TrEMBL record:
Coiled coil: none annotated. This is histidine kinase. The keyword Magnesium does not apply. It is an enzyme of class 2 (transferase). PANTHER family: HYBRID SIGNAL TRANSDUCTION HISTIDINE KINASE C (PTHR43547:SF2), TWO-COMPONENT HISTIDINE KINASE (PTHR43547). It holds the Pfam family HATPase_c. SMART domains: HATPase_c. The keyword GTP-binding does not apply.
């Protein structure tokens, strides 16, 4: 036992040494730092620096366990007198040392008591070391210390409490520093007075008071100290308050248990055990309660903060909720409800989206299993919410106490399903550009309270933001739907363009049949033309599914020279179309799509040229590409037309044209991983160049051929 007591005493002695040395270092450092900055503490600057030096020396004496020695006693008295001088100089900083008459008498009284203490301590140490006399001296010292400490705290309170609002900005940190020192001293000497002995454990922590004093004074001497405030977050405050309540509960439980134990006897022991069991059971049931947490939040917000909400935390939570993405994220409607419900701790909610005819109707629900009714709000109530931007407290609307007597506004009656469901607590309209987008019905929170101006302001702002999200979402859906219609119209335009070309061929064939039907050569050529038209129609049907996606037929290795000759064959009998150069090449492309592109370009060249102007087609190797070139000497195009109109769909220079031929040709070439370029000059002609990748190099010698 003696060994255990000795080790405990050594531990406390070590703690006291560390804290006192730390306090001495801090006080000396701050005193040196303040030397060129005395003005920051006003008229108390020099006095504060001196008090810090004395405090550092006293802390070193305490660290060396010199308490009770003459030097330590004198240093402690000088320390206390120095800080009383600092208080007086702080009063002098705003002139109140002259205007408040009681200050000087109180200060002189405290100085007298402190000097009396010093005399008693020195006298007892010099006269005798009798234990009875030392005990009497300790009691007298504790009583006088309590008197000095209480008087000093009263001075500090008057120093800060009686200051003007502007002076308080500069006084709050020095006042807090002095209060921390003397509050610790008050507790120390109170325990010593009640116990009749010096509390060594608490006295070992006196260095903490010195460290707090130095820290607060240092803050008070920095720039910007007037605007510096300690602002704990609501989460920290709530957790601290919760721990305080738990601590009070545990203390009360221990006190009651000990009181029962003092009664003595087996019966008291039984009562004590029963009480502890019941108390722990109650704690396990009550502490995890959501209702208790809601009550704590309301109480803390109401009494400890100027505003109920921590707007930064609310906005961050709102952003996290509404911005949830991923496969596991709930739909937008549920996130909208949750974002509003989190503000008021509502456990559930409904989202009613507006319908142009019938008013807001149920569109989504969050933690609300079912409703007893249609879920329609009604057009009259919706119009009122939109017009007034009115956040409705449904309890008031049910009782009829929501009417504003100033403007006599009264909302239309609630629908039956909403009026009869007691879970419904509030209606929040979501308004975007003065138009009602949706309405959120919030369920009653566990800790029901009356909504006030701060609730209305925050709900209204968040509601406007949510309305913008819902409006943007609706716009995106409308845009996607318009895109689908545009894709459909584009498909139809492509189909009509191809059908128009086939119809032209059939019309030409019918006219020629009237003149040459008896000729066998014509009939043979007509069969070929009909077969080709049938193939085109079948290809058109197969391509309907790929229009709008830039798709082409299967890409494979093809003979580029054969494609060029097939295009020339399409215009057989037209002496304007000539094949000028045709190298035997293999290209990577879709034969049908490439042939369609070249036919379109040749036909455009014929349309732009006169009846005697030739249109030339060639195919040669160019690097890693097969280069198809269509050249005409027609009217040509301006650079502005090529840049902004040539490849724009549904823009055409031809009367009755659809304006999609060039656009479709470019998209088909791109789908084959190729490129379509154009060169043109007005009055001279145009050159269209199609490049598609080569499969291999040239497979034969270059050959030039002109087709008549």
């Amino acid at each position: 036992m003696h060994g255990l007591a000795g080790s405990t005493a050594d531990l406390w002695a070590t703690i006291a040494l560390v804290l006192h040395v730390s306090g001495a270092i801090g006080a000396a450092t701050l005193a040196a730092w303040l030397k060129p900055r005395f003005g920051r503490l006003g008229k108390a600057g020099h006095a504060t620096s001196f008090a810090l030096v004395v405090t550092a020396l006293w802390s070193l004496a305490e660290a060396l366990e010199l308490r009770g020695s003459t030097g330590a006693t004198v240093l402690e008295a000088i320390r206390n007198l120095s800080w009383l001088l600092v208080v007086y100089r702080l009063f002098a900083d705003d002139g109140r040392h002259d205007s408040l008459a009681p200050i000087r008498p109180v200060l002189f009284s405290l100085v007298f008591v402190e000097l009396l203490l010093l005399g008693v301590d020195l006298g007892v140490a010099w006269i005798s070391a009798d234990p009875g006399l030392e005990s009497l001296a300790l009691g007298l010292e504790v009583m006088l210390r309590l008197l000095v400490t209480v008087g000093a705290l009263v001075l500090v309170h008057n120093l800060y409490g009686g200051a003007s609002p502007d002076a308080r900005l500069a006084l709050r940190w020095p006042a807090a520093a002095l209060a921390s020192l003397w509050i610790f001293e008050l507790n120390l000497y109170t325990v010593a007075y009640l116990s009749g002995a010096w509390p060594r454990e608490i006295a070992a922590l006196r260095g903490l008071a010195t460290i707090a004093l130095v820290g607060l004074l240092g803050v008070g001497a920095t720039h910007g100290r007037e605007t510096l405030r300690l602002r704990p977050s609501r989460a920290v405050t709530f957790q601290t308050f919760s721990l305080l309540l738990i601590g009070l509960y545990l203390v009360a439980m221990v006190v009651i248990a000990q009181s029962l134990a003092y009664m003595g006897g087996n019966f008291a022991r039984l009562i004590e055990l029963i009480f502890v069991t019941v108390a722990m059971a109650v704690a396990l049931l009550v502490l995890p309660s959501r209702r208790l947490r809601s009550w704590l939040k309301v109480t803390v917000s109401k009494h400890l903060f100027q505003h109920r909400y921590d707007y930064r935390e609310e906005w961050l939570r709102f952003t996290r909720t509404i911005g949830g993405v991923g496969p596991e994220a709930p739909p937008l409607g549920e996130r909208v409800i949750q974002a509003l419900a989190d503000v008021t701790s509502s456990p559930a909610g409904l989202l009613l989206m507006c319908d142009e005819e019938d008013g807001p109707a149920l569109a989504a629900r969050w933690n609300w299993a079912s409703i007893d009714g249609t879920g329609n709000l009604g057009s009259d109530l919706a119009a009122f919410l939109e017009r007034e931007s009115f956040i409705a407290d449904l309890d008031e609307m049910r009782s009829g106490s929501h009417v504003d007597n100033d403007d006599e506004r009264e909302a239309p009656a609630l629908p039956a399903w909403l009026r009869d469901d007691n879970r419904a607590w509030a209606l929040v309209p979501l308004i975007h550009y003065d138009r009602l987008v949706a309405v959120v019905v919030l369920a009653r929170p566990l800790m029901t309270r009356k909504l006030d101006w701060e609730d209305f302001d925050l709900l209204r702002v968040i509601g406007q933001q949510l309305a913008s999200y819902l409006a943007e979402h609706a716009s995106q859906e409308a845009l996607a739907e318009a895109g689908r219609f545009d894709d459909f119209n584009r498909r139809i335009a492509f189909v009509m363009h191809d059908i128009k070309n086939l119809a032209s061929q059939f019309s030409l064939l019918a006219r020629n049949a009237e003149l040459h039907a008896e000729k066998k050569a014509f009939r043979d050529d007509m069969i070929v033309t009909l077969r080709s038209s049938s193939e085109k129609l079948n290809a058109l049907i197969s391509r309907l599914s790929r229009y709008g996606s830039g798709g082409v037929d299967r890409i494979e290795g093809i003979r580029a020279d054969e494609v060029a000759r097939a295009v020339i064959a399409r215009f057989n009998g037209n002496r304007q179309v000539r094949l000028t150069e045709c190298e035997p090449l293999r290209a990577i492309a879709s034969r049908h799509s490439l042939e369609q592109v070249l036919v379109h370009l040749v036909q455009n060249g014929l349309d732009a040229s006169g009846p005697r102007s030739p249109v030339f087609l060639s195919v040669v190797a160019e690097g890693a590409d097969a280069r198809f070139e269509v050249v005409d000497s027609g009217s040509g195009m301006s650079p502005e037309f090529i840049r902004s109109r040539l490849f724009k769909p549904f823009v055409s220079t031809k009367s009755g044209g659809f304006g999609i031929g060039a656009f479709e040709a470019r998209e088909l070439v791109r789908a084959m991983r190729g490129r379509l370029d154009v060169e043109s000059r007005e009055g001279i002609g145009s050159r269209f160049i199609v490049r598609v990748p080569l499969q291999t190099g040239a497979i034969g010698a270059s050959q030039t051929q002109e087709v008549a």
